[in-house]
Amino acid sequence: MMGKDVEEVSASLVREYLSRKGLKKTIACMDEELPRTNSSINNRSDLRRILHLEGLYKKNKAEEHPLNSMLEMIVKDRISEGGKIKGCRHDSQTTSSISIDRTRNVKREDFMENLLCDTSRLSEGSASQVIVPSQTSSEKLRNSFAVHPESERSMHSLPSSQDSLLTVSKEGILSEKKVVDTDSQKNRSSRIRRGIMAGPIVSSAQESNRRHPTRKAPSSVISTLEHCRETANWTNGVNSTKSISSAPLEEGGMFSNLHTGSVDCNRHERTSDVKHGLKNSAPSPKLDGLHVLEMVLDDVENEDSLCDVSRASMPKLSLDKTPMDQMTATALKEIIFGSSMACFTEEWKQQNLTFSDIPGLKYGIVQKKGGPCGVLAAVQACVLQKLLFEESSNESSERRLEVSSVLRTKCLSLALADLLWRAGNMKRATVAINTGRSLFTPVGRYKSDGILEMITYVTVETLDDLALVLEQHVRQFESGPFGCILFTVSAILSRTIAIIKSDMDVPTSTLIGAHGYCTQELVNLLLCGRAVSNVFNDEMKLDSGNGNFTLLKGIKTRCNIGLMSLFEHYNICKIGSHLKSPKFPIWVVCSESHFSVLFCPSEDLATDHRKEEEFDLYYYDGLANQQEPIRLTVYPHSAAGAAQNDDADSDLIPPLELCIRTKWRNAVVSWNNTDPIL
Questions:
Q1: How far apart are CA 489 and CA 535, in angstroms?
Q2: How far is it between the farthest Cα atoms of the chain?
Q3: Fewer C-beta neighbours within 10 Å, C or N terminus of the chain?
Q4: E strand segments, 435-513
Q5: Which ranges in 133-201 belong to alpha helices (H)?
Q6: How far apart are CA 73 and CA 21, in angstroms?
Q7: Active-site residue among 156, 227, 578, 594?
Q8: Strands (E), 51-133
């Protein structure tokens, strides 16, 4: 196994199968009982190489209907091999006729059950004695069926009078066998003497010291048994002694009725609970509380290394989660919509922070419908900040845009942490998590939307803890439903509702306005950490007459991310230098009631305000269904640009160029053979 631990490879094979089948809840249950480690394999190609499946993978790929998972490929290959062996044995009817005659009293299911756990020798110091079934003079199989002691507490029983055992069917597939315990107690001794008892019985220490001689089985049988055991090793929890543990799987799966336990073919141990029958136990509340929306799933299908986003590399935090109550949900709705009877639109409900799969645009977050563009543009801008300027790399700035799926998820997690930490005034932050189940039943004047009622939230007081929480739950924001809503609620709770109201010029202002559009207060909350209503620097006193002044609040400090707005071109507002000249050359662009992103891969643009030579800007709009990058070349001081500014008719100039000219007044923009966005 190239130095890899058998347990880690087996567990990774299980996760690859579950991931291909979309069984996210099952993966979460598995991660709960068998946490990932630094040795876990999260790369599908590495897993193929370690298991030497390259040839089998290519053969499967050439099939008309190829299988999805490596586990299925292995099982299919083992079944095919088993069929060949069975055919050879069928041809030698004369040789095996005596054996069949002598074992005619052995039930088929007992024999197949014995087939699963054979091929092992009694381990030194074994605490159990194996009763060897009596079969033919040419083959004598030793069988064991053990439940690992550590798995006893997590076993879910079948009905009280039954034990759940694993068998191997004629086709070589694991299945469940129910042995009626109560009715079989009287016949147990006689069955053991006849050699047809499936599995060992617990014996005394003196008996365990005695070894029964074993006769060598035919090579074809040993080969079949080895195939069975290797096939069975896919189940969760295979350790260095090659014990086989079955994890609770999705209902309707291949092993839908198997419960947590283990089968050990080497140690030959079985607990007394199996002998006396398993008692009914209620499912674990901890497992029942799990929901697919709360899971963190590392897709091992990804050919990239899963580095920091894997739960395996993260220490687990023990943090208190606060369930949402109606009072908090009502306050959230009032600050977001202005009424507790309003709900998120379908555009918001369907939106998460999923990245594009288009080559050259994999750094871009895809917007499905109009509405939450302000939130998406702010997050997109911060992701670019992390990707271009904060992740150390020797590559050119342009090459950094060729981002892997792992790196972009990592940058997303860091970006969300940055935005929430700023909203919490660099002292605290809150992360909203979807539990997938309602935490309170609304009463009175409150309209349920099936989102806020399912949220629980965690508050942390250090940036490191915030980063860990977001890494553990980043998939909820990136690919889970309501990802955009969860982040918006997290930002509001980080700032707190009371402080957000004090940020606004008018306390009754909302964060989402007409048609589900983001207001300037919400965009400012994400860009500068304060939900102020204006974009100019500092504060402004407005004379309201009779010696009264109205204090208008603006942006107090220079921001990491900037803002350009078409409104400034029409003299509707004036953007101050804190937003217009940010620390990083990245701007959120507000044009035609829509937010998008404009950025430069070179950080020099942010430090040299009097740059004379031309430079490139990249434009990304998650809603525009871009198929390729849009690169603009800006000539900041041009006579042609000055002439266009003097021309009163600017209807033919693309709005994006007008936004660029709010910073570089006489700029001329080349679209580099790309059709201008009008």
A1: 23
A2: 116
A3: C
A4: 455-460
A5: 181-184, 188-194
A6: 14
A7: 594
A8: none
Measured distance CA(262)–CA(166) in Å, rounded: 10
Contacts (Cβ under 8 Å, ≥6 apart) of 545: none
Question: Residues 6 or more apart from 91 whose CB is under 8 A from it?
Answer: none
- Across residues 101-105, what is the average pLDDT? 46
Strand locations in 382-473 (E): 429-434, 455-460
CA distances from 584 to 205, 381, 508, 566, 595 (A): 73, 10, 33, 21, 18
Per residue in 460-499, pLDDT tens? Answer: 999 999 999 999 999 999 998 899 999 999 999 999 999 9
- Among 67-81, 89-103, 379-393, whose mean pLDDT is lowest? 89-103
Tokens 């005659």 identify what position? 101
DSSP-assigned beta bridge partners for residue 460:
429
SS3 call for 218: coil
Identify whether the C-beta of residue 183 lies closer than 8 Å to the C-beta of residue 162. Answer: no
Question: Which single residue is written with the structure tokens 């003196």?
Answer: 206
Position 519 pLDDT exceeds 80: yes
> pLDDT tens-digit profile of 536-558?
999 998 887 777 888 899 999 99
User: Closest Cα partner for 225 from 237, 217, 213, 214?
Assistant: 217
Residue 123 has pLDDT above 50, yes or no: no
Which pTM was predicted? 0.57
Decide if 594 is catalytic.
yes
- Strands annotated E in 69-138: none
The alpha-helical segments, DSSP class H, found in 120-218 are 181-184, 188-194, 205-208
Burial of 27 (0-12, 13-18, 19+ CB in 10 A): buried
From 388, 387, 366, select the one nearest 376 (Cα to Cα): 366
Q: Tokens at residue 414, please?
A: 């860091």
Give the number of other Cβ atoms within 10 Å of residue 274's Cβ: 23
What is the Cα–Cα distance from 484 to 368, expressed in whole angstroms?
11
Q: Token pair 């009725």 is at which residue?
A: 257
Active-site residue, selected from the candidate residues 373, 411, 528, 659: 373
Strands 562-565 and 586-591, by their bridges, are: parallel
Query: Which of 310, 305, 263 is closest to 119 using CA atoms?
Result: 263
Residue bearing the bigger pLDDT, 648 or 528:
528
**Is the Cβ–Cβ distance between 633 and 667 less than 8 Å?**
no
Alpha-carbon span 353 to 338, nearest angstrom: 25
> Is residue 265 annotated as a catalytic residue, yes or no?
no
Q: Beta strand pairing status for 539-545 and 548-553?
A: antiparallel
How confident is the model over 596-606, as pLDDT tens digits?
999 999 888 88
- Using DSSP bridges, classify how beta strands 615-620 and 594-599 pair: parallel, antiparallel or unpaired: antiparallel
For 630, the enclosing helix (H) or strand (E) is strand 630-635
In 172-272, at which residue ranges do the beta strands (DSSP E only) sit?
Answer: 174-180, 243-246, 261-264
Give the whole-angstrom CA distance, residue 173 versus residue 578: 67
Q: What are 335's strand-pairing partners? A: none
Residue tagged 């500092």 (tokens):
538
Token pair listed for 99 = 């054996």
Q: What angle do CA 94, 98, 102 make, to 5 degrees?
A: 155
CA–CA separation, 488 and 493 (whole Å): 9
Q: Evaluate whether 245 touches 115 at the Cβ level (below 8 Å).
A: no
